[in-house]
User: Fold these one by one.
Assistant:
Number 1:
Amino acid sequence: MKELYVFCEGPTEQGFCRQVLEPHLLNFDCCIHTIKIAHSRRHGIISRGGIGKYETLRFDIQSTIKSRKQGQGVLFTTMIDLYALPADFPGKANIVRNPQNPRPYCEALEQAFGNDIGDARFLPHLQLHEYETLLYCDPDAFAYSFYACDEAIAGLKRIVADFQQDIERINDGEQTAPSRRIIGLLEGYEGLKPSAGPDIAEYIGLAKLRDRCPHFSDWIGELENRIPAA
């Protein structure tokens, strides 16, 4: 069986990998191991979850890759938000960002990221703009994890209507990022992200997630292409 190691920003992404991504990739004879990314290294202790300095993330990924078995059947990837990347992230200082079309900027950062890690088995992925974008694929699915939330669902549908052509363009301002908009309408989501986030995505289903989120879908497609040849 092939193995895919996914460096995740936090427990929400780890839950998504276990509940949604792994069942799909089992069709390709591939199991998943999730690793919560290192945030900081200090006094002999590694704190994990969320991104601190890129240097810490880079060391964590490269060290993990080197420590895993060499040869065939092992791949590595990431599920990290584009939103709030550290200033020292590869390419961030010189790659021009078009807020109206963020995908080329995201892809250029991914390429710079992959070049910096420097291992052919590593496929970098940055989520546009963060994990919660996926949940806008079907606002009605929030009723799976929350009751009496019709008003919040209606609000989410209005947001989706504003980005009907491409929900991955929902912007990344401090108060307008996908997760902040959800929390503004449904306060309870903030405390339940690690469980509700994966549960809602699982309820929506991978096919619909891929249909509405083309950058995300391309990542899944590249994994599907690479795993058989690994």
Number 2:
Amino acid sequence: MPFRSGVFFRAAAIGLALFASACATTAPVPPIERPDPSGPPAVVGPEPTPGPAPSAGLQPVDSLPGFSTEDHRAVLNAWRATCRAARAEAVRRLCEEARALGDVSQSEARAFLVERFRAERIEGEGLLTGYFAPEYPARRAPDAEFSAPVRPRPSDLTLVDGALLSPDQAGRRVAARIVDGRPVPYPVRAEIEAAAEGAPPLAWMRPEDLFFMQIQGSGYLTFEDGRRLRAAYAADNGRPFVGIARPMIERGILNRDEASGDRIRSWLAANRGPAADALMDENPRYVFFKPEADDGAHPAGAAGLALPAGRAVAVDPTRHAYGELFWIDGTAGNLDGAFPTYRRGVVALDTGGAIRGPVRADLYIGRGDVAGREAGRIRHRLTMWRLVPAA
């Protein structure tokens, strides 16, 4: 997940730790903007007068689960900072109205959300996962520990209509290479890693770190001299993501309740070499990178805008539009150390290879290890609402 042109293209979200990979440890970390039920309510001042009765199929936003304890100012600020990605005319008009408000209080933000939006339930239940921007050590030259090359986009990789490779890929731009004048699927991970030719690597990493960075689709590298760069998504080989937790469970390497990202990564590090390589090769997907300056900010998503930590989600762009405001209700997390619920307003700003379907969201948590620990524990049952402009 999703990152294209700076987008986190996570083939599977970090939160899919049970059947994918993730960077997490076992010590719980407070979630970003987690409401404190013992503290003061998020609403400051009197409750605003309820808005007009909703249209058929819509409901008031203040009836959504967790809305009363939401940080209304935070969600409004996140949306109006990124809503220019929206294309629908009604959303764009409301975006301009929100951006013209200036600084707002909690009660003013709540009133705006209640009066100017209605909630449209997206039918069914799905999956909420989490992702983050990882930070890793790297080297300019390889050694026994830092042996995995961070490869730039190959010169022979081209994008073609997926229908030329497989009927089920129709309508998508898919990586390929041209052989005898015809496009053929680009090689899988194991074949790419076995090839010695190509442009010089951008850097060298520990194999397990590179594997995890490819899942996230982007990352930040720190070299021996303290210099830093961002390894941004440049391309992928067009192959589907296959998580390695399931085969690790099936082979008795890990128990089902141990399949967190931290446990997976620790095993890969402890078995660095042929055993770990063979397991990582179970995932045929491979991501290539390009160097960018690290300005200390959060990375951009597929919408081309910086991702607000805890307030941006990756969605299926064939089902939803970038810049839209959603309400997520994530419950029943099934990973060890997970926080029980994620109920908040979020903006659709990104996508990812495993983010498919109408009720599917990947929550961007932030940069670094703290964000990684939280993201690695998000695998929650998801209910979603689209917040649409009130008539």
Number 3:
Amino acid sequence: ALLLAATVHAEGGWAPKGVVELFTSQGCASCPPADAMLKNLIQQGDVVALSYHVDYWNYLGWTDTLSSKKNTDRQYGYAQSLGRTGVYTPQAVINGRDHVKGTELGMINAKIDSLNHAGRGLSVPVKARMRGKEIEIEIGAGYGEAEVVVAYFTKREMVEVEKGENAGKRIEYWHSVYDVQSIGIWDGKPMKLTLPGKFMGKKKKDGCAVLLQTSGAGGEPAAIIGATVLMAGRHKR
């Protein structure tokens, strides 16, 4: 039902109320509650929710099977654009504009609402759909300039953590990002883009989020002004 709902949302012009990017690690003892929170957030059905596994806890004895340096670099990029000196897990970055502790569902929803009330929400409509073997992306009009970023993710994965701080735990991970690509520049005018969708629906390649994201002075990720999610379709669990 979740998959089908997300597909209908994306094709029907679903307008999420915000974007939540959770930075987490299988090797961090504080992270499993945040990973569980993300599932609840996804099931709310009104936000774009993504999980980025970082690699800087891998030295503790367990190499996170979903981690990458690119995910760590993205988190450090946010630290720069948010004026922070360091990073932590679990960290939830909201709309690319602010952050809260990644375990607090109520705090995350409150932050999304406060950003919306302050005019710092998702103001540009973004739609995505599968047409044959291609992904069609449609972006509405607005102001300024932003990158069109596609974050590909695995819908759900169970991992047996054998060593480190979470040794012996079987943890469920949702919307784990495995690749992020910048596919174009939006300049405020409506635009359409077409991507090959040949990877969508293959093993563990379940969906993607399309983010309309501004950049900081050094090219680091900053405010997200539009977003949607596209799922490959129904999958066996």
Number 4:
Amino acid sequence: MHLVSLARLTHIFIQYGYLAVFIGLLAEGAGIPLPGETLLLIASALASRRTGLNIGWIALIAFCTTSAGDNIGFYVGRSGGQALLDRYRRKLHLGPRSLQRGQDFITKHGALGVFCARFIAGLRVLNGLVAGSLRMNWPRFFLFDILGAACWVTLICGIGYSFGDRLP
């Protein structure tokens, strides 16, 4: 069952513009499972159609909010993340297997895992929470998180903007 249709998401972006990008990506970065790449693709595609949205502003907002959201998630994880993940994982639709995959990925790959997790749906949502709960060094997390965010935002915005005028 789809909670929100493509038409509804398009309407939300046209009506709320940059605020929709800000809230959606900040929430995803903080650990709420939302389809960040879908949100960013739609916003970027709409920018290519001259709807009043500017791709530069979308990219800047996306970069800042994904980085801020991940750091909020990191702080939450550092402050008691394992207990919070255990308590709320069902409400967030995160199974034990997903959590374990996220923990294994960050533990095994460290900073490179933080960078790469940005590109993997599911792990992107857990990135900050897991890194914080595993007591990863914050400056290292921050550096690789912003590098990953910059690459991810550039890629997703580029795809959405480049192909936006070709989508129905």
